[in-house]
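Data availability excerpt. The first of two example chains:
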Amino acid sequence: MDPMDKHQARSWLATALEEARAGLREGGIPIGAALYGADGTLLGRGHNRRVQDGDPSAHAETSAFRDAGRQRSYRGTTMVTTLSPCWYCSGLVRQFGISRVVVGEAGTFHGGHDWLAEHGVEVVVLDDPECAALMREFVRENPDVVCHENVSRPAT
């Protein structure tokens, strides 16, 4: 598998950002994800629904994974997410052999992407300002709804 082209990564991130915005419109946490096939086909997309569904396991990555349906193999696939994946979602990537993770931003939450890289998953961190702004604003406006214990809270 060739290393991820940054232009392509940003293009795919747009899908995850659409999902993050959809989650925010629903009153949820603005985290979106998309799973792309090795050939660049969009397999599945989704957003965090923890608040909307009252389900702590309804993360954006799991939503996109479920939307993709069962695949013969996940080798060569790319999980694109607006926020660094938590340990739960990082485990999903490892469990199913997803080859690459594109992270919109890792400043508000530094999840398991370093661990994934240590275990052979290609990780591309884009430091996208819109992804960071969405999460910072959400945390500022919703201090009681924290998506992860380690989300950086803005200074007051």
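And the second chain:
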Amino acid sequence: MSGCDYSLFKDGIEPMWEDGRNRRGGRWLITLSKQQRKADLDRFWLETLLCLVGEAFDDFSDDVCGAVINVRAKGDKIAIWTTDYENKDAITHIGRVYKERLGVPPKVIIGYQSHADTATKSGSTTKNKFVA
């Protein structure tokens, strides 16, 4: 339903930037258009949850904190949150695996943003630290 947020995080981690495990982290963000809601939203969210529960990110699964979905009238967002935006190897691996598992076409870019940048942004966009 529009206006709702849902999240799944590891035990002891709150779905907020201020949590100690999230503070220095960031998120791989998938933005969906209104048209994609019917075709992709449920499938993307289910695959996101399966990635988390199944520890799909190999040696870097410990770097994943959780996932959030924001359902909005103008478009939806799904994000996987990680614990340390400076751990480039973990972040790039997680992004590559995530994009592959969702079946996102290679030409479509997904971006990674640090929570610190998102918290201090001016305007509606945050610069991507990494892309996949």
